Amino acid sequence: MKCAIRFCGGCNCGYNRGKVYKQIVNEFPQVNFLIASEDDIYDFLIVFGGCSSCCASYEQYNVKGDVLKIWSDEHIDDIIDNIKNILETSQSTTETENEQTPEATLV
At 107, is the pLDDT very low, low, confident or very high (cuts 50, 70, 90)? Predict the structure, then answer.
């Protein structure tokens, strides 16, 4: 599972974005967190805004799923819950696809 990370410019930060980022990364070692690049495709994206404007652009990135926005350390629990839901949905989708894949018959 690949997650793009996008930070704003940091002109008016009301919290330590790096600390929150590390907390989220540590919570989900199974997720590959990467600084967003226009040359890649991601399962979901997190925008780390420093203030309520959360003005960092993200439309230029290829994201298959959700875009999560955080602009306060008060949002950490919500972001963690959202990521858990993304992972659970992805896992159950994969399990369903595996159940529907016919097994090869050996002759």
Answer: very low
